[in-house]
Amino acid sequence: MSRQRGGWRRGFVILASILCLFLLTACHKELPALSSKFEPVKVEEKAKSVIALVNDRDGQAMREMGTEEIKASLTDEAMQPVYDALAKAGAFQEIKDIQLAGNTDAAGQEYGVFVAKAVYEKKSFIVTITFTPDMKLSGLFFK
Fold first, then answer.
1. Record's InterPro entries (predicted)?
2. Where exactly are the structural domains of the chain?
3. What is the pLDDT of residue 30?
4. What would the CATH number be for the domain defined by 2-142?
């Protein structure tokens, strides 16, 4: 039971961290620097591959590249609202306004954070994707 509660807390911390970074981005404040544990090119490439998987609706591949928490929570059912929104947004066009940042949770775990605008034919989304230092997908947020 305590293991599940700890996983829930960690997931909440990750989600809260992502929300904080999103709010910082929305306010145009300077984001925390990406840790030296991350290679910016790799973070950007991996994030772009995640967006491609979302566009392809390939939840299985996203889960395979994720942490245990992502594997448990990133179900096809959980992704359905994103897929529905993408269906209404039209064809994917580009990724722009890329920003990379770092974040550390309450337990001291560092994360690499990718924030960008995913532009579709009829709508754009702010996408926030987080990775652990070993480049496991640890967070995905489309707004």
1. DUF3887
2. 2-142
3. 64
4. 3.10.450.590
